[in-house]
Amino acid sequence: MHWMLKSARFLLRWLRSLQPRSLVLALVLVNLSVTVPLAASLNIWEDEAFPLNTSGAGVGYAIRQDFELQPPLYFVLLTLWRNADASVFFARLFSVVCAGLTIYLMATISKQIFPGVHPAWFAAAVVFNPFLIYAAVEIRVYAMVILLSALLLLVFFKGYLDPDARPASRIWYGILAASALYTQYYMGFLLVANAVALLILKRWLRLRIYLVQMLAVAAYSAPLLFIIPDQVSSEFAVSKGKVSCFDSVREVSKRAVQYVFPSDWARSNRARLLYVGILLSSLGMAIKFRRLITSSDIVMWTVTVTLFLCFIALINLTVRMFLEEPHMAALFLPAIICAFSLVKGMGDRKILLTWTILVVFLCGSSLLIKYKLMAKPGDFKRVASYIMASEGPGQAVLAFNATAGLVLAHYYSGPNPLLSLPKECDLRSSRNGRLWDQGREADPETSVGGFRRRALFVARRKRGLRTIQQ
C-alpha cells in the first residue's frame, strides 16, 4: 500500500510539472491510443454501410442523398477525405481526428469558462468517455457534430460574451453556425440555446446582433428546405403511436445522465436514481456556494436546459422517429460542462479530484464491457470468415435482409454469389426445409438463381448473425 501512495504522489508531482498544453496533448494521445486500434479492428455494421456507399459514389451523389435523413456536408467531406484512401479504417480516421480535436478544444473552452481551474481536469473527464469513443470509431456524423458544438461554444464565448469581443469572432461564428446546420439539423437547437443565454444575461445589444446574424445564417441554409420534405415524408407516413411528456422527459434525462456518468455495467433504475441524486446534490452544493457562480456558469446551465427542452419537444412531435440515442450529440458537451460547473462551484479541489476519478472509473469500466468482444453489432467480419470456411461450390449465400447483405458484401469474397432477400424472413416459420414468403412456399434448392445445391442462409439476430445450412 505504501508503494502505491508513493507512486501516486510521484505521478501527481510529475503532472504538476508539465505545462497545461503538454498535459492536454498527452491526454489527446491517450485518447488516440484507444480510438485508433479500435477503428482498425472493429467490423463495420449496418449504420456504417450506408455512409460508406454514399461517400463512395462521388461528391454529386453525396449531395443528392436523401435516405440518410441528414444534411449533406458530412458526406461531402467524407467523400473528399476518402479520395486519399478508400479503406474502412481511413474513413473512420476522419471521426478519430474530430474526437481528438474535440478533447484539445475542451481544454481551451475550460480556460475560457473556468479560468481558475487547470484545463486538464476538464479534458481528463472525457478522454475515455464511451460516447466520444463510440463517435470516434463510427463512420457517421456524430464526432463531427461534437467537434462543431465545441467550436460553436468556444467562438460564442469569444464573440458574444467576452467584453473585448472582436467582429472577426462573430464572422467565424456565423460560418460555423451555417456549417453546423449543413451537418446535422439538430445543431439548430444549440444556436437557439445560445440566443436564450444572451436573453437571460440581458445582453440586449449583442442579442440583436446575434439575431441579425442568425437571419443571415437562415438565408444561407435555405436550400436545405428543398431536401428536408423528401427526407422526412416517408418516415411520417409510417409513424405510429404517441409519446407522453413523462416518457420524453425520462428518455432525454436518461441519455444526458449517461453522457455525464457512463454506466454500461449499471443500467438499473436504482443506479440511475443514484446518479440523479449525485447531480441534485451537486446542484444543492452549488446553490450553497452560489457566491462562486459566474456568468459563464449561468450561460452553460441555460444552454443545457434549452437543449434539453428542445429534444423533449422533438420526441413529442416526431414520436422518436428522428431521435435515436446518438442523435443527441449536440447535448454531449453542454451536459458535461454543466456537470463540471456544478462540481467546480463547490470550491474544493478534493471534490473535483474525486469527481474526476469517479468519472474516469465509470468510463473505463464501460469501455471494457462495451468492447470486450472487439466486435460491433452483427460481427459481420467473423460471419464472413465462417461462411467462406464452410461453403462449397455452387452454394449461394443468402442474407435475410438487404441491409445485412450490404454490410456482408464488404467482407465476403468467396466464390459464390451473395444475394439479399427483398423481405426479411424468419426461419422459425419454415416447414420441411421450405421458406415462407408472403404466404407462399419457395424451395431454396430451386428458387435461388438456379442453384441446385443447398443454399447457405445468413439469418439476422438482434445482436449478431447466425449461419444456417438449409
Descriptive tags:
470 residues; mainly alpha; 2 domains; four-stranded mixed β-sheet; two-stranded antiparallel sheet; 21 helices
Question: Can you give a write-up of this model?
Answer:
- The C terminus is likely disordered.
- The N and C termini lie far apart (60 Å).
- Helix 11 packs across helix 16 and helix 16 runs antiparallel to helix 17.
- The protein folds into two domains: 354 residues, no CATH class; 90 residues, no CATH class.
- The longest helix has 26 residues.
- It is globular and about 75 Å long.
- By secondary structure, the chain is mainly alpha-helical.
- The chain has 21 helices and six strands.
- The strands form two sheets. Strands 2-1-5-6 form a four-stranded mixed beta sheet. A two-stranded antiparallel sheet has the order 3-4.
- 63% of the residues lie in helices and 5% in strands.
- Strand 5 and strand 6 form a beta hairpin.
SS class: mainly alpha
Tertiary shape:
globular
> Sheet bearing the most strands, described?
4 strands, mixed
The average pLDDT value, as a whole number, equals 78
Summarize the structure in short.
The protein is mainly alpha-helical and 470 residues long. The protein contains 21 helices and six strands.
Task: Draw up the topology in text.
Layout: H1 2-17, H2 20-41, H3 46-55, H4 59-64, H5 73-82, H6 88-113, H7 119-124, H8 130-136, H9 142-161, H10 167-181, H11 187-201, H12 204-220, H13 228-237, H14 245-260, H15 269-288, H16 295-318, H17 332-344, H18 349-370, H19 380-390, E1 397-399, H20 402-408, E2 418-420, E3 435-437, E4 440-442, H21 444-447, E5 456-460, E6 465-469
Parallel strand pairs: 1-2, 1-5
Antiparallel strand pairs: 3-4, 5-6
Helix pairs in contact: 2-6, 3-20, 6-8, 6-9, 9-10, 9-11, 10-12, 11-12, 11-16, 14-16, 14-17, 15-17, 16-17
